[in-house]
Design brief:
The complex is a heterodimer of chains A (281) and B (317).
Chain A (H helix, E strand, L loop, with lengths): L1 H25 L4 H6 L1 H11 L15 E4 L5 H10 L41 H14 L6 E6 L6 H12 L5 E7 L2 E2 L2 E2 H4 L5 H7 L3 E6 L3 H13 L7 E6 L22 H8 L10
Parallel strand pairs in A: 1-2, 2-3, 3-7, 6-7
Antiparallel strand pairs in A: 4-5
Chain B lengths: L8 E3 H15 L3 E5 L3 H4 L2 H6 L4 E3 L4 H12 L4 E7 H4 L4 H9 L6 E5 L17 H6 L5 E3 L4 H10 L7 E4 L4 E3 L14 E4 L4 E5 L3 H14 L4 E5 L2 E3 L3 H11 L2 E8 L4 H12 L4 E6 L9 H7 L4 H13 L2
Parallel strand pairs in B: 2-3, 2-4, 4-5, 5-7, 6-7, 10-11, 10-13, 13-14
Antiparallel strand pairs in B: 1-8, 6-12, 9-11
Helix pairs in contact in B: 1-8, 4-6, 9-13
Classes of the chains: A alpha/beta (281), B alpha/beta (317).
Chain lengths: 281, 317
């Protein structure tokens, strides 16, 4: 177990390097949320999800993942590349002309691993519910995962989806909220308080769990526990506490790095804190 | 003028209901979703036949579009059902990102389109939906003219891979097309060959155009009438072939004159063959409460308005 966790931590270190390098190279993008969710993505793709070789849109016979807060595309792209969906060298094209790695994820350019476009917030949970319903119709007992932002909880569609899934017993679904307390304009507490998110989701009928999203061992055990809660008549919701910018000290604890790219000096300072474990792209 | 008769009047939404049931029988990948308007959308027969393939979403259209997009991942062919207003304007961004940009095989089926919704008034009478939908890259836009054509179109779109907007309505109107027609997406239907003017009509206005054609024949005007049931992709060849013969155009639609069928035709003509054109359409306004017939008269969308528009455009040749 501890050997596995060490291996995952090494991958996460490399993914964090990829994130800051990608964002630096195009001088745009969203490093803060990407770094905060790195442990979650790595745990999901390298330990938790049942995945098939290659990529088929319909994803029959395997687990599926949907990213609703599409602006954290750097961590999604790096994870997909490191998991073998496409060459890591393609990460260098992020946000550049003629790239499959658009600013926000899309199926439109045919990038393997992406099943729906996201970026306009609030839509991903509904799509994940639809995919989960299709799995039930197909008698496919694999799971559907979704990740949302916490600022995104301010979108109304989220609550339409939140109401639908428990009533219809969509219990092959594990949705996670990246609960970092930050959004573009400041702390969620100052912009539009989310109130008691746990109580809200519980009152909608979800099986709600809490998890520290920046300690790999806890992410892995938390996701395993969430899996154990599926198939019991309720969808599962994980409130995942993360720190925006996690892994790079000067990017942590503030909303300032939500959507800002590091300069050359800041890149060097960030990379000095992140061990190169799998080889840079 | 070719003679068209009918023995009964039916609503096009019932054509959708019948077509959905048949599409469900022919293809077990067809599933249906509704946002609390099962009766209005005539989805009961499908639900009775395939209860496990139907999803009642509740009054949550944004969620419905997202769930429909998700159902395609796993190979389903989702048909969403609600009023045209709630199928388009209310959920434009969901359709744009989760369906159109994501290349999802969702069939957006919209009843109660246009003024003929009647008494509910302007909040429900969307007159901008064709424009909204045709602007989305990759979206097919279909507006059939009667019960039989709506039924045929509903079945045909299951075999077309890609997002579709299918628009139909509430009032009973003459059933005058073939019950066993084969619906070809993007292929205009020649209703009547003529030489003096081309009338391109869609939806409920096709029957009005036929009525107008008979009145025009009495006035010695030989009108060509073409049913443009597919507004996108537009059958440009049929449009240009007709206009080459007639040299003037009237377009007729239950939609705002901005962004509808008329503009699609005008765009083709501006590029290939600039031609005098008159619009029979709503003149950039909202609707209001009233009976369908009263509204079609007040907003200038009946046979008499088509006759006047033809007389006007012929003078501009």
């Amino acid at each position: 177990m501890s050997e596995d966790i060490t291996k995952l931590e090494k991958i996460a270190s490399q993914v964090r390097r990829d994130i800051v390098r990608m964002v630096h190279a195009c001088q745009s993008g969203h490093p803060g949320g990407s770094l905060g969710c790195t442990d979650f993505f790595v745990a999901l793709y390298f330990s938790i999800m049942k995945r098939k070789q290659g990529f088929e849109m319909d994803g029959i016979g395997e687990d599926l993942f949907f990213l609703s807060n599409g602006h954290i595309s750097p961590v999604f792209y790096s994870t997909l590349a490191r998991a073998g969906y496409f060459e890591v060298s393609e990460l260098a094209t992020f946000r550049k002309i003629d790239s499959r790695l658009q600013g926000h994820p899309t199926t439109h350019e045919g990038l393997p691993g992406i099943r729906v476009a996201s970026g306009s917030l609030g839509q991903g949970l509904s799509v994940a519910i639809g995919a989960a319903l299709a799995k039930k119709l197909n008698h496919d007992d694999n799971l559907v995962y979704a990740l949302m932002g916490d600022g995104e909880q301010q979108e109304g569609q989220i609550w339409e989806a939140a109401m639908y899934a428990p009533y219809n017993k969509v219990d092959n679904l594990i949705a996670t909220i990246d609960y970092n307390g930050q959004q573009i304009d400041g702390a969620t507490e100052d912009v539009l308080s989310l109130g008691n998110l746990k109580a809200k989701w519980e009152s909608f009928g979800w099986d709600v769990m809490e998890m520290n999203g920046n300690v790999m061992a806890e992410v892995v055990s938390g996701l395993q526990e969430a899996k154990a809660h599926t198939g019991k008549g309720k969808p599962v919701l994980i409130l995942m506490k993360t720190e925006m910018g996690n892994g790079v000290d000067f990017m942590m604890g503030s909303h300032k790095w939500h959507g800002v790219a590091p300069n050359d000096e800041q890149l060097a300072a960030a990379l000095a804190q992140l061990e190169e474990t799998l080889g840079d792209y | 003028m070719k003679k068209y008769t009918y023995t009964e009047k039916k609503d096009t939404r019932s054509g959708f209901g019948a077509g959905l049931l048949e599409a469900g029988r022919r293809n077990d990948r067809v599933v249906a979703l509704c946002a609390d308007l099962i009766g209005s959308l005539k989805m009961n027969d499908f639900i009775k036949a395939f209860p496990e393939r139907f999803f009642q979403i509740g009054i949550a259209e944004a969620n419905m579009m997202g769930i429909a997009a998700g159902l395609t991942i796993g190979g389903k062919i989702p048909y969403t059902g609600t009023f045209a207003n709630f199928s388009t304007g209310r959920v434009y961004d969901q359709i744009r990102q989760s369906i159109a940009y994501s290349d999802k095989n969702v069939k957006i089926c919209a009843s109660h389109a246009g003024l003929t919704l009647g008494e509910d008034g302007a909040t429900h009478q969307i007159l901008e939906d064709i424009g909204l939908m045709k602007m989305l890259p990759g979206m097919t836009v279909i507006n059939p003219c009667d019960y039989n054509q709506t039924k045929a179109a509903t079945m045909a779109i299951a075999d077309h891979h890609g997002p579709v907007y299918l628009r139909f309505g509430r009032p009973v109107v003459p059933v005058f097309t073939d019950a066993n027609q084969k619906f070809e997406i993007g292929k205009a239907w020649m209703v009547n060959e003529g030489k003096d003017v081309s009338i391109f009509a869609t939806g409920h206005l096709v029957w009005e155009a036929i009525q107008a054609g008979e009145q025009l024949a009495d006035l010695g005007i030989d009108a060509e009438i073409i049913n443009i049931h597919t507004i996108k992709p537009l059958d440009e060849e049929a449009v240009l072939r007709s206009v080459a013969k007639t040299g003037c155009v009237v377009t007729a639609e239950e939609h705002n004159r901005l962004g509808g069928l008329g503009d699609s035709i005008a765009q083709v003509l501006a590029k290939h063959r600039p031609t005098p054109q008159e619009y029979v359409a709503v003149n950039d306004s909202f609707g209001e409460s009233g009976t369908p017939a009263q509204l079609m008269e007040k907003y200038g969308l009946n046979a008499a308005n088509i006759v006047t528009a033809v007389q006007r455009v012929i003078k501009r040749k």
